[in-house]
């Protein structure tokens, strides 16, 4: 479930938006009345969506947005009189007066987008560190030297052993290095 932070300068506005969201199935993780509170809550949660107004006593929405961690989105609820017409890329804007269906639909769309982005990031292979690359290289060299394999064959052998044993390639390479160097 996606974390939602509700942030408005007036506590009454924040509570009203929170109640609307909770009634429509969203998990509101925090209700804030200042920009600093919103940023602190976002830092603690790491990912989610900040639903907020335009101005706070300590910040305006774009300053909050700049301070948010990478996994956070922002839904700005603003009246036309406060709107300058420009919002940073990544900020979704809804005009007031607000219709509940518009708020819920927009937030659902943002949640879906965040979920897709998270899945995409998880599916990307993790970059190996230099140490991990070195261990795999050593294991390949040992296999090439001892078993007279080509580099491609040594790499495939480590991959196959890794899949067969249910370990990652680095762990398999470490086992090969420790077994051959005995």
UniProtKB/TrEMBL annotation:
A Pfam cross-reference name: ANTAR
Residue ranges of every copy of the ANTAR domain listed in the record: 116-177
Gene Ontology molecular function terms on file: RNA binding
Alphabetical list of Gene3D superfamilies matching this protein: Winged helix-like DNA-binding domain superfamily/Winged helix DNA-binding domain
Protein name (database record): Response regulator NasT
């Amino acid at each position: 479930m996606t974390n939602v932070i509700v942030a408005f300068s007036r506590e009454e506005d924040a509570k009203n938006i929170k109640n609307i969201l909770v009634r429509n199935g969203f998990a509101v993780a925090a209700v804030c009345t200042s920009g600093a509170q919103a940023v602190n809550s976002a830092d603690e949660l790491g990912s989610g969506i900040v639903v907020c107004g335009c101005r706070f006593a300590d910040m305006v929405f774009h300053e909050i947005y700049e301070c948010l961690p990478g996994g956070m989105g922002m839904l700005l609820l603003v009246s036309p009189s406060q709107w300058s017409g420009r919002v940073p890329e990544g900020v979704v804007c809804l005009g007031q007066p607000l219709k509940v269906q518009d708020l819920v639909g927009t937030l659902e769309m943002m949640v879906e987008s965040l979920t897709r982005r998270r899945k995409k990031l998880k599916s990307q292979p993790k970059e190996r560190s230099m140490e991990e690359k070195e261990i795999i290289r050593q294991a390949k060299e040992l296999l090439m030297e001892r078993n007279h394999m080509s580099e491609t064959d040594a790499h495939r052998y480590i991959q196959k052993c890794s899949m067969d044993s249910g370990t990652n390639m680095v762990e398999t390479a470490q086992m090969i290095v420790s077994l051959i160097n005995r």
